[in-house]
Write a structure and sequence with these properties.
The protein is α/β, with parallel strands linked by helices and about 240 residues long. It has one domain: Rossmann fold, CATH 3.40.50. Helices cover about 40% and strands about 15% of the residues. The protein contains eight helices and seven strands. A seven-stranded parallel β-sheet has the order 3-4-2-5-6-1-7, sandwiched between helices. Helix 4 links the parallel strand 3 and strand 4. Helix 5 packs across helix 6. The longest helix has 21 residues. The radius of gyration is 18 Å and the shape is globular.
Length: about 240
C-alpha cells in the first residue's frame, strides 16, 4: 500500500486497528541542493495581522526582487498577498497570483517566469502555483503558516480524529497543525524539481521553531539555523 507522505504511522494504525510499518523515501538529490532557515520576528496569527505585518511582508517582497534571483514568495491568503503587494516598491519584477486563475492564465504566468520576463512570483499556500507545477527557483520565502480557518468542516474533522485517537491534542496536531506545516513545505518544494536545481528556503513565522519536530525529516535535516527577520538580507 502506498500512502501520502503526510500520514503518520500512529494515525494510520489508529484508523486500521493494526500495526503498520512505513517506508519513507529520503531526499533524492545532492545534500547541498537545498538549504533552509527558520526565521523569527514575524507571525501571521489573526490577532497580529496589523500594518506592521503588512509592511514586513512588503519588505520581504522587495528583498526577493532586489536579489535578482528567481524567487517564490508564498502567503497564507490572497488578502495578505494583495495588501503587501500594494506596499511593495519593486513591482516591475513581480507577478502575483489572483483568485480563480484559469489554466491558460497559470501557463502564462509560468511562461513569463521561465523566460525571465518576471523573476518573482507571489502565490498563496495551497494555491494554483503552490501545487502540481514546476517552478524552479533559487529563493523561496514562506510567509506565515497556512492554518485552515475554524470552519464547521474543520471542527468536524477534529471531532472525528478525537474519537479515533482518543486524544483531542493529538487530533489537533494531525488534523490542523501537520497539514498546515506540510502545505508550507509542499509550496517550498516547487523550487527543487531536478538534480541541477539549487535553492534557499526561509520559513518565516515565530511558530515554525516550536513546530520544527513536525516537519518532514528530509526538510528538517536541511535547516541550517534559526535567524531573525532583520538578518534575512545578510543570509542572502
Amino acid at each position: 500500500m502506498t500512502m501520502s507522505a503526510t500520514v503518520s504511522g500512529e494515525l494510520l494504525e489508529s484508523f486500521l486497528g493494526r500495526e503498520v510499518t512505513l517506508l519513507r523515501a529520503g531526499w533524492p538529490f545532492e545534500e547541498d541542493n537545498l538549504t533552509a532557515y527558520v526565521v523569527r520576528g514575524l507571525t501571521t496569527k489573526f490577532v497580529r495581522r496589523d500594518e506592521t505585518l503588512i509592511n514586513d511582508m512588503a519588505w520581504a517582497i522587495d528583498l526577493a526582487a532586489k536579489t535578482g534571483k528567481k524567487s517564490l514568495v508564498f502567503f497564507p491568503s490572497h488578502e495578505l498577498l494583495q495588501k503587501s503587494l500594494t506596499k511593495a516598491s519593486r513591482k516591475d519584477a513581480i507577478i502575483a497570483e489572483t483568485p480563480g486563475l484559469t489554466q491558460e492564465e497559470v501557463e502564462e504566468i509560468i511562461r513569463d517566469y521561465e523566460e525571465d520576463h518576471k523573476r518573482v512570483i507571489l502565490s498563496v499556500f495551497n494555491g494554483r502555483l503552490a501545487e502540481g507545477v514546476d517552478l524552479s527557483a533559487n529563493l523561496v520565502i514562506c510567509l506565515g503558516i497556512p492554518f485552515s480557518p475554524p470552519t464547521a468542516k474543520q471542527q468536524a474533522l477534529i471531532k472525528r480524529l478525537s474519537e479515533v485517537l482518543g486524544d483531542e491534542r493529538k487530533a489537533r496536531i494531525y488534523g490542523q497543525i501537520v497539514p498546515a506545516v506540510w502545505s508550507a513545505i509542499q509550496a517550498a518544494g516547487r523550487a527543487i524539481r531536478g538534480p541541477e536545481d539549487r535553492a534557499v528556503v526561509f520559513l518565516v513565522d515565530d511558530r515554525y521553531r516550536p513546530l520544527r519536530r513536525l516537519l518532514p525529516r528530509w526538510f528538517a535535516e536541511r535547516i541550517a539555523s534559526t535567524i531573525r527577520l532583520e538578518d534575512l538580507p545578510i543570509t542572502l
